[in-house]
Amino acid sequence: MPEYPSLQKQLNNFKTSFANVTLSLANKNYRKLLKVPSSIFKERLSICKECDRYVEEHHRCGECGCFIGIKARVGIESCPLKKWGALTDEL
Question: Which pTM value belongs to this model?
């Protein structure tokens, strides 16, 4: 079985992501921050799938424990290893 961060750390990552999404709803450009364009999503997925921390069996990040298909789709999310960053509201 692949190793993921502790359940506590995964829960903290989820709470942070949820808080970021909630806060972004107040931003006038929130739609761009919540769902990335298809091209950016595909680029993020490609980067993740090439990473040594990618767990193909579960489509999860071994570093943060997130499900890649969800994390890569959300504009305000970023890679914990800084391989791709969050979108900004200037887009």
Answer: 0.76
- Residue 57 buriedness (CB in 10 A; 0-12 / 13-18 / 19+): exposed
Query: CA quadruple 54, 58, 60, 62: dihedral positive or negative?
Result: negative
d(CA 53, CA 48): 8
List pLDDT tens digits, range 36-52: 889 999 999 999 999 99
Using CA atoms, how far apart are residues 74 and 17, in angstroms rounded to an integer?
A: 9
For the beta carbon of residue 67, count every other beta carbon within 10 angstroms.
Answer: 12
Q: Are 13 and 5 spatial neighbours (Cβ–Cβ below 8 Å)?
A: yes
User: Look-up: residue for tokens 């190793």?
Assistant: 3
